[in-house]
Records
---
Amino acid sequence: MKLAIVGADGWLGLHVARLARAGGLDVFPVTGGHQSHEALEGIFSFGETRYASYDSFKAMKVALDGATHVVASLEPRGRGQGLPRIPPRAASILVDAAREASVGKLLYVSVMGAFRWSTHALNRHAYWMERALTRRPGPWAVLRLSCYHQELVDAHVRPPDGRVPRPIPRNGRYSPISGEDAARLILAALPRIPVGRLQAVGGPAVYGSAQLSRLTSGLVSRGLGLPTAYRALPRGDVSVSPQETLAACGVLPEDTIESLLESLSAWKARPETAPRVPTVYPAEPPGPSTLDSGEPVPVLQECSPALRRVVHQQLGDDLARRGLDVARLDFSGARPGSRRVRVHGGFITDMDGVRALDARGDLVHQGSVEWLRDELGEVFHVFFGDQIPAALWRELDMGVRRRLVKDPRWSRDPRVRSWSRRQE
């Protein structure tokens, strides 16, 4: 077996890479750029790592050359929120590249609860990635994991950002699994799961929300300020029975939540000697967008750093979809509108006169900017123009679309009206 690990620089990909290399497999990591190799130091030499843009079919086909099997960890919960979210089209590019590179099997790692209507933003993104993969012909199989130990710790027990932990969602059911056990199951399932099969696996036991709350109650940190930015576990039943996991993989996970919490208790008693618990998320927040000049401008004066970064990134993505090469966004001459929203810890309005410049400082686009906000679905988007772009509309789930039909601002949007008529 010659194993390629796509997304090896992510949190879960690193666990798979370590275990595969320790097991003596002929393995090479595939990442999205040279800057990703730092995470792989100590496991692979620089020359062993292969680099390919996840948006490029040609580059991905070359990166998979010689591989007989592929493990892909690209969905956002497995990668970790600190890394960029990979667009769903990357999943279809991946399976096309695997087919053309004569890969025997591509095992794509997804998550339980990846539904279009999920209230969990990361699970909705995982749905669109999985959908893009499974609609393509090719040697794919999908392994869906329940949830990770680190998600429980980071969001509900000891948030690394020091903020207030989130309550565990009520009436949920989970089968938490450690990163090490997840890697064991992935490598064990790789030769066993048939092509075209979607298989769910989880940890060594199933827990309800009330049971997890009791187990963690004495260890939850007080935190300071706002609720943590680390996302809570998804709502609902995302559990998998140990019997199903054993039947699928031939092995059972070993690391229990109780053993993890015991180590946290010991760490609390002796913080100077206990190791830091690994987390899904980075300790430091990401910096400003590369499209941001950093200059103070009136229309962005109420933006938090996070909101300012989101606005620049989303507008840059909107222009990239139009085929425009943008180096900087200029808000210095922009005029605020009347619609105002609070999101990401700051405020923003619609606006007019936003300019996009290329690397030489030449104007490539100028126009108005609108925002779309759906609190129930945790959706916020900004874009150029006064109509919802087609690419954005395709990402909105059924619940958000239904609420837009009743939204005074968007009920007359052409895409909203057309969709509403089809539902009647």
Note: The chain has a mean pLDDT of 89.
---
Amino acid sequence: MRILLSILGVFFVASACSPGADAPNMSNDEAPRNCQSIAHLGDDYTVCAYAVAEHDIRLFHSDAGGAPYFQFSTLERELDEQGEVLIFAMNGGMYHDDRRPVGFFRDQNGDQASVNTNDGPGNFHLKPNGVFWLTGSEAGVTESQAFLDQGLDPVYATQSGPMLVIAGALHPGLNPDGTSHRRRNGVGVSADGQMVYFAISDSAVTFYEFATLFRDEVGVPNALFLDGQVSRIYAPEIDRNELGPDLGPIVGVVE
């Protein structure tokens, strides 16, 4: 089955949703939620969907003085002082020990690094890796070299790796018999660039299992892994505000 998420009181269906699928049961007095719990291959996941046209999705790393936010609470407090409300957040990409992004990152303060296409160890360099990007009118997940070749110039961007789903197919390097189990989070974007889906596993899962969530349940053509070490979520609508080590990049939704 493919995931159905209630957005702003209207049911938006993930790309390629099977015809005739039933929308979730909701009473008339129940407020629509952007986040849902999804069961997939015996594990539970939380998937939060946001429409680009209706939501202010941003990337964050540091305040105007260059001090990293580190925690959701710090970002929440600064936005509150500016008269804005953080309604969702998730760790938004890999980072060095000093919390600088490993790959390309662009937020309201500009670029912190260029697109990294170097070879190297670790998940980030399990090519192809990719870039999650946002403009004022659309979003995308694009392979890193394709991002450069297309000359994309978004408002916000974060590079991570590996890609999980590429043009509807799983990353060829993901092993269906993999034995590494971790809590993981990632992002996928609908084919028309109008819906962004953030997912996090609620228990330890393999790379392959996590990738199939985006392919088989969310139904997006492209999805990107964000992390498997510090994965956590801030989502007040479902009473989630997870604590942990200091973060580098953060992706958030603001009202």
Note: The radius of gyration is 17 Å.
